[in-house]
Amino acid sequence: MDKHINKIGVQSTEVNSESIFFNPEVDSSDTVAVVSAGIVVVGTILTAFASFVNPGVVLISFGTLAPVLWPDPEEDPKKIWSQFMKHGEDLLNQTISTAVKEIALAHLNGFKDVLTYYERAFNDWKRNPSANTARLVSQRFENAHFNFVSNMPQLQLPTYDTLLLSCYTEAANLHLNLLHQGVQFADQWNADQPHSPMLKSSGTYYDELLVYIEKYINYCTKTYHKGLNHLKESEKITWDAYNTYRREMTLIVLDLVATFPFYDIRRFPRGVELELTREVYTSLDPPGLNAGPIPEIDFSYLEDHLTRPPGLFTWLSDIELYTESVAEGDYLSGIRESKYYTGNQFFTMKNIYGNTNRLSKQLITLLPGEFITHLSINRGFQTIAGINKLYSLIQKIVFTTFKNDNEYQKNFNVNNQNEPQETTNYPNDYGGSNSQKFKHNLSHFPLIIHQVEFAEYFHSIFALGWTHNSVNSQNLISESVSTQIPLVKAYEVTTNSVIRGPGFTGGDLIELRDKCSIKCKASSLKKYAISLFYAANNAIAVSIDVGDSGAGVLLQPTFSRKGNNNFTIQDLNYKDFQYHTLLVDIELPESEEIHIHLKREDDYEEGVILLIDKLEFKPIDENYTNEMNLEKAKKAVNVLFINATNALKMDVTDYHIDQVANLVECISDDLYAKEKIKLLHAIKFAKQLSQARNLLSDPNFNNLNAENSWTANTGVTIIEGDPLYKGRAIQLSAARDENFPTYLYQKIDESLLKPYTRYQLRGFVEGSQDLELDLVRYGATDIVMNVPGDLEILSYSAPINPCEEIETRLDTTCGALDRCKQSNYVNSAADVRPDQVNGDPHAFSFHIDTGTTDNNRNLGIWIIFKIATPDGYATFGNLELIELGPLSGEALAQVQRKEQKWGKNTTQKREEAAKLYAAAKQTINQLFADSQGTKLRFDTEFSNILSADKLVYKIRDVYSEVLSVIPGLNYDLFMELENRIQNAIDLYDARNTVTNGEFRNGLANWMASSNTEVRQIQDTSVLVLSSWNAQVAQSLNVKPDHGYVLRVTAKKEGIGNGYVTILDCANHIDTLTFSSCDSGFTTSSNELAAYVTKTLEIFPDTDQIRIEIGETEGTFYVESVDLIRMED
């Protein structure tokens, strides 16, 4: 017998009654209506989630919940809500003011009105989709949503928040159900009314749904604990009052809150099987003890002896009841329970309460799958000397059990005779519903024995524990919807690893300190995606073995608070828990028990917390794959933007956007056409934002070497159709030698830059060897990238005949790449540098800073890629230069020092160049007859021009040290002088009446036969005639009565002659003849070997002449043909 003896004062009168304990929800007759309503709502939602397999069907219609929350609309539409408020007042012994109550009731009834109007419009739209019906349902949906957003705060007034919590939770559920439908159908409504402006999309409502899921969960949970703690801290609180609040607010509030996360339709698009593993307790038995606290037994003693501490979920296998006889009758003196963990029924544990040494006993045995759903107790009372009443005399206890949809009765009689079992129909509890989801199972039968005051009588006190019937006894995994299995249903776990849940998880949690094992069973042979729902304050490695398969995962931290003496589980919010999905899908056999073992791989350290709530199993099939493709694409698109705005996140690269675009394009057109179109619009918008912030011109390499584009030489190739790039990429081949590198460069104009700002160059390299990258502003930042070419494209190979078996492939063009089947693999051993994006050696990012900006100086930023080795190569793409933001602190000071040093060196170089510039300029001035440079001096020879040009070339820093084709510091000075040199050459050429007489433009302006050509010989253009019938001619306009000098520089090889003939319309003919034997003539100005110059004076009589060039045989080379008019 329990050593803790309680003396109870009893009253006179003799009563014989029956106490009914169907379930905890009917424990108090005063609260049947509200508790029953809460239980029915929860059961309805659990059933709806489990059967939600068609995305086109509403999860729960408002018409399903309305009869529960507004049961008598004609009599009193506010009745159940008033009872919710009265229930809150009774539980906490407080009062809601009449004004507050009336305002709350008005808002609650307003919710009904807007939901009713919306559902009517929705049903009209479903029957007749059109622009009008779509417009109406959109408007009424938004009105209903706005009504909830505006008026829910009226149910959370600080003074009355705990009293109105039941109303708030039920209303929150209605709001989430509404938003769930908005996510489902908003895009369809919008598509049916394409010309309506300012419509919210499904994505917008999804963002709001997530916000309100988190908000409602956190508020309801915190407010529940606030009320519970208030009762516990009250001076005269009874255990019964405390337990009643805990029980009934769990049934009404916490059970409902535990379903809120599963309104996330994009994470659970096909429904989910949920289980509530929490345990609730009836009020104290005998019921007469409810009137006040039990003398001499404190609150903590009752809590410790009548409720169980957190532990693994258990099932009753049998109950052995013991009675003891006294003169007045028999009382219940002892209980022995046998329990087992889920899936481990052959290993039972026994708990003993009271005195089990008595001879009178009876065993109530439960078969596997049989549960006690309610029981009734017949008892007797005894008057003692007219002043005392004895409560605990037992006549009979009837246990009603449930198995395979049938009910049975098992009787406990004081004469130890069981009544026969009978089969009955399932009882119609709570408004005629026969759903087993509304039931509870007996889980715990604790007992305390006490002595009656002023008498030698003993009497027993107990409070029955119950668990929700949603809990599956086999951990059965559904083949059609997601299955959430709480980890507290494990059969083995490290000691003290089960902790009390925060309230919104539907039960207790496992704090994984070492290992945990659970048994599950799949209903059919199928592959599943397995996830953990967990919370951790540090990165923790966990190994997971599922049957013969195993995987290791690194769970990332989800919250930052450390576990210490001040930390409690109630400090955690909903967002502190996250899902982690195993990378590999696992196939489970049909109807076989599968052992799943979880092991924490690090050494447990106090304060480093890993909490696991549930294991999730999502069945994998074609539908699931399509759904996951859709969800993956949606999530990938959503994370591109900042908090659901139209702003692109700074760390989102252009390459990443392209990869997300591939995900979107892989969405099934047949199943999700509208969703795909919406996501395509979003990803195209993201690409537009990426392009808008990209300061590079032509980042997709559409027009190399065009104005305002990239400059490249012949070793650069544009590639398309590379599996790793959605757009074009660039390929740099090996260099001939270091003096002739393969290059690609671009300058960012100063006008695009901001002062004291950091810019970042990013891109993606498929593979490279000796790829040099230079970012040039205040000197060059030389970077060499050797990126391993270790990216393999899985499931992609070009068939011998790409048009064979085309129907088996997803792409529709013969030989086209199927991006939906490709998968990249990056060698984990690849060298990783700090400037690589997210540790990926193929993604690079480097920054460059600006100091002061000057548009006149136009220093800009030069971006230069080059290969300068014969073994080098590179393939890269998705280049972008973006603004990161203004400089500050050390970065600002550093760029100021760098700019100052660069400025000093630049000034010195400019001073040296100025001296050379002055000398060259003076020499060039002497070439011209006037200061404007419009006419050469008569005595200026071509050698004078060449001498001046040599002085110009003494100027240094004309071209970049990084790449010799890029302008350098003194480029403008050099080009000014070079332009004047060129002007001299042009004036020299202008003396020549023959157009293109030096063949610099090939055969332009000449009439030539097809067997003539212009070759480049020692950087000089030379006309080559190699056949006797080859001919080149040009007709010229001249001024008659003026003299002209014909000057020809040429060379003849082989036998025969070459000739240049000049004739006019008067048949005057003059000819210069060349042969291989020519000697004694002036050599050409460019000193080409064996070339000679011959001249001839002519005085044409007509205004037109013709020059003809030909040969008799051999080869005739002509360097220039000049016809210079004689000066007056």
From TrEMBL:
Molecular-function annotations in GO: signaling receptor binding; toxin activity
**Pesticidal crystal protein Cry domain segment(s):** 706-885
Xref: InterPro entries = Cry1Ac-like_dom-VII, Cry_V, Galactose-bd-like_sf, Pest_crys_dom-III, Pest_crys_dom_I, Pest_crys_N_sf, Pest_cryst_cen_dom_sf, Pest_cryst_dom_II
Known SUPFAM superfamilies for this protein?
delta-Endotoxin (insectocide), middle domain, delta-Endotoxin (insectocide), N-terminal domain, Galactose-binding domain-like
Please verify whether the record's keywords include Iron-sulfur. no
Q: Which residues form the Cry1Ac-like domain?
A: 999-1076
Record keywords, A-Z: Sporulation, Toxin, Virulence
Q: Does the keyword Zinc-finger apply?
A: no
Family annotation (Pfam families): Cry1Ac_D5, Cry1Ac_dom-VII, Endotoxin_C, Endotoxin_M, Endotoxin_N
Q: Which GO terms describe its biological process?
A: sporulation resulting in formation of a cellular spore; symbiont-mediated killing of host cell
Tell me the domain of life.
Answer: Bacteria
Question: Which segments constitute the Pesticidal crystal protein domain?
Answer: 81-264, 273-471, 483-621
Q: Which family does it belong to?
A: Belongs to the delta endotoxin family.
Q: Tell me the protein's name.
A: Crystaline entomocidal protoxin
Which source organism does the UniProt entry give?
Bacillus thuringiensis subsp. finitimus
The gene it comes from is: cry
